[in-house]
Each structure stands twice: as C-alpha cells, then as structure tokens.
Design a protein that fits this description.
By secondary structure, the protein is an all-alpha fold. The protein has 19 helices and no strands. The radius of gyration is 21 Å and the shape is globular. It starts with 9 loop residues before the first helix and ends with a helix. It binds phenylalanine (PHE). Phenylalanine (PHE) binds next to helix 1, helix 2, helix 10 and helix 14.
Length: 455
C-alpha cells in the first residue's frame, strides 16, 4: 500500500479543510435557515453552537485523525481496540451520502443559474419574475434531474481521475476571490434602501422566537456548515503532519466559515427587505434574491457569472470532501478499488439525488414524516445524524481515549504551549456532549412533558 500522503504546507491543511467547510452551507443554507427561524435569535444560538460545540468537535475529529493517520473506523479501532465507538463511521457514511444527494440538487441549480447568467437570461427581470424563474426550474422534473446528474458527473470525474488536489488548488486560489466578491456584494447591499431593516433582522435578536425547531436548526446548521460530525475532518486530519497546530487550525476554520455565513446574511437580508421578499422563503431564498441584487448593480451580467462560478467551485470542494468519506471507507476497509468505490458512491447519489430533485415536482406529494425527500434528507442528516456523530466523537476523545495521546496531539508532543487546552478539553468532555443531548431532549419535548408532570 502506498504511504498515505501528508499535507506538506500549513496552507494546504487549512485550505483543504476550509474548502470542505465553505460551500452552499454558508451561502445558501445559512441565510434561509436564519430567515425561516426569525433572524437574530437564530444567529445568536448559531454562534454559540459554533464556538461551544463546533470548535471542540472539530478538535476531537482532528485529534483522532492525526493521532492515527487512519480513516475513522480503523482509527477508533486502533485507539480503543474492539470499541463500539467505531460504528460512528457508519453515521458518517450514511450522512455523507444523504448530504451529497440533496447538495447536488442545489449545486445543480447553481450550474443552471450560471448557464442562465452566461446566456444573459438572468438580467432585466422584476423580483417577482425571479420567483417564477426559480419555480419553473425546480418545477421541471427533467431540468432539475439533469443538472443534478451533470453536477454529480463532474464530481465523479474529479474523484475518478484523482485530480481533487488540483481542484482544491484552483479552489484555494478562488476562495480569496470569493471572499472579496462577497465583501463587494455586502457593500452594495448595505447601500440598498432598506438595509437597516435587514441588519436589524439579523442582529437584533428577539428571543421570544426561540423554539425547539430553531435550536435544533441552529445546531444542525453549525454542524453542516463546519462539515462536522461525519468524520470528514477526521479523514482530512489523518493527512496532517505533526507540526499542524490543531486548536489553532480548528479555530481558524470555524472563524473563516462563520465570517462567510455572516457575510452571506448581510448580502441577502438587506436585499430581502428592499425588494419586498419574504425572509421565510426557505431553500429558494438565495436563488430569488441574488439575481435581483445583480440586476441593480452596474455590470450585473458579469457579477452574476463571477459569483455563480465561485459558488460552483465552493460546492465542488465540499462534495469532494464528503465523497472521500465513503471512498476512503470502501478502499481502506473493504479493499475495493478506488474506481469501484467512486462509481458506487456516485451511483447511490444519482438515485437519491434524483429523488430529491423530483421532490420539488412530480414527487412533491410523497412525504415521510411530513417532509419531502429533499427536506427529509436535509433534516435527518444535518439536524440528527451530524450532531449524533459529533456527540460520539466528543465522548470518545473526552472519556475513552488515552489522555496522554490527546494532550500530545493538542500540544504537538509538548512543543506547543497551549493555554486554551483546558477549556477546550472541558468543552469536549462536558459542554458539547451535554448540550447535544439536552437539545435532542428539548426537541422531542421531554422538558414540556416533565414540566407538565411537575406543575
Ligand atoms: N460544510 C459544507 C458547506 O457548508 C457542506 C458539507 C457538509 C461538506 C458535510 C462536507 C461534509 O457547504
């Protein structure tokens, strides 16, 4: 077996992990989740989740991955032979496939919007028209399935040819440009007539809106956006070298990822209020709002091509990272060839992704737990499986793993003096697992039943 590669440069480590984290989760999912759950209060809880649960769980994944240089299953088996904790890798595999499926549908919409931008169809309409344009795209079974297939095809080719490193490099070059572009869009949005209302919606929290669905939504969004809980970052960390400072790297990833999400919010919400749209529009929010923004910017035609191109690259680095979980598992645990594993991964995603694409049209009446396939995959993976995976990984590092190994990982064998080690360990052992459990209990209504019993 060939020696597992290591990220040589510091930049490579951070860039690949940021490439996984920054994607449609920040720019598409964050604004719509925040919009659906009342804005400010959601964002406050989201930030708490990122810092109290997100960073500790990223570090937990890093510790396991770098301590062993193995995939999740073998890593846990090596650290605690025979431990049932290794089954967390199945949560990772199932959620990665579910996410890949619905994510590809949205990434397909991005390609269609890029295409429409290029042929000049996206400019010069009224805000209501943009709603119709989006509805006609998702309402058409063949169009939405075709774009999904196209996206999965590109993802497949990149994985198959083993050129993900190349794509990551291009994407690393493009990410700073994306950042810059988002800042320009932000300034533009802040100059819109109702910018103040948009900012108030985001930054003046109304805590009377706090509800179980908001809290689990915020936690799920934090896990989704940080690519957390499905052993994706664990797999990346298995390629880190001994000099990578884990706590610092985790913090940088979380901060960059959060900045992109907040920037996206600052772009979208002032525009939502200025163009008379509804913040609660759901998954279509960004697709209706962005074109209206391009429309009122000078040179909107080029801006829209640039943004959708960058969003495409941001999504492909994320889907590569989630596909790798499945592929690494099949090749390293089941001796499958990389070719076959890639084909299997894409095949499953094609079937499930088509179901998700069709759930906006011909299958829209088919509901499981009152959710369409698309919503169900999104909800189950982001809000349930990822936090559950994060819980298991935090408990493993906090309670099961040898404490010296953990400390050595956090301090790079004693060469780093990490003052934040104790608080981080405290979060990994207590705060993160407890908070995840309490949120689950809150959502299934346990506290209400308890209150009813007691009072
Ligand atoms: N974090 C990615 C995003 O924000 C999505 C993702 C989830 C990627 C899980 C990998 C694993 O778009």
């Amino acid at each position: 077996m060939s020696e597992r590669a290591q990220f040589v440069t510091k930049m490579g480590v951070i860039a690949a992990s940021v490439g996984s984290a920054v994607g449609l989760g920040n720019i598409w999912r964050f604004p719509y989740e925040a919009g659906m759950h009342g804005g400010g209060a959601f964002i406050c809880i989201y930030l708490l989740c990122v810092f109290l649960l997100g960073i500790p769980v990223i570090i937990a994944e890093f510790v396991i991955g770098r301590a062993t240089h193995k995939n999740a299953n073998s890593a846990i088996n090596l650290l605690a032979p025979g431990s049932k904790f290794r089954y967390v890798s199945y949560i990772g595999i199932i959620s990665s496939v579910m996410i890949l499926s619905f994510y590809s549908v949205v990434a397909g919409w991005i390609i269609e919007y890029l295409f429409q931008s290029i042929i000049g169809n996206l400019n010069g309409h009224s805000p209501e028209d943009y709603s119709n344009i989006f509805n006609s795209l998702v309402g058409s079974p063949w169009r939405s399935v075709l774009w999904t297939i196209l996206f999965l095809g590109i993802n497949f080719l990149i994985l198959r040819k083993g050129i993900q490193k190349g794509i990551e490099r291009i994407s690393n070059l493009l990410m700073p440009i994306l950042f810059l572009l988002l800042i320009i869009f932000c300034i533009n949005s802040l100059l819109l007539p109702k910018a103040k209302e948009g900012l108030e919606f985001m930054f003046s929290p109304d805590f009377s809106q706090v509800s179980p669905s908001m809290i689990i939504g915020a936690m799920g969004q934090a896990f989704f956006s940080l690519s957390l809980g499905l052993t994706c970052l664990l797999t990346y960390a298995s390629y880190f070298n001994d000099k990578t400072p884990l706590i610092k790297t985790a913090t940088i990833i979380a901060i960059l990822d959060t900045c992109v999400a907040i920037l996206a919010g600052v772009i979208i919400f002032p525009a939502v209020f200025s163009f008379g749209a509804e913040p609660t529009a759901g998954p279509k929010l960004v697709f209706e709002i962005l074109p209206s923004i391009f429309n009122q910017m000078p040179g909107g035609y080029l801006w829209s091509i640039a943004l959708f191109t960058l969003l495409f690259f941001a999504s492909i680095t994320s889907t590569i990272s989630m596909s790798e979980i499945f592929i690494t598992f099949c090749t390293e645990e089941h001796n499958m060839s990389r070719k076959k594993a890639t084909r299997l991964n894409t095949g499953i995603a094609l079937v499930l992704g088509s179901l998700c694409a069709l759930s906006f049209n011909v299958l829209s009446d088919i509901k499981v737990f009152d959710k369409t396939f698309f919503d169900l995959f999104d909800y189950v993976s982001s809000n349930i499986l990822l936090p559950a995976g994060g819980f298991i990984l935090a408990v493993f590092v906090g309670w099961v793993m040898n404490k010296n190994i953990v400390a050595n990982q956090l301090t790079n064998n004693g060469t780093l003096n990490v003052r934040t080690m104790r608080p981080i360990l405290f979060c990994i052992r207590y705060i993160a697992p407890l908070a995840i459990i309490l949120i689950f209990l809150y959502v299934i209504g346990l506290f209400d039943s308890l209150a009813a019993l007691l009072f």
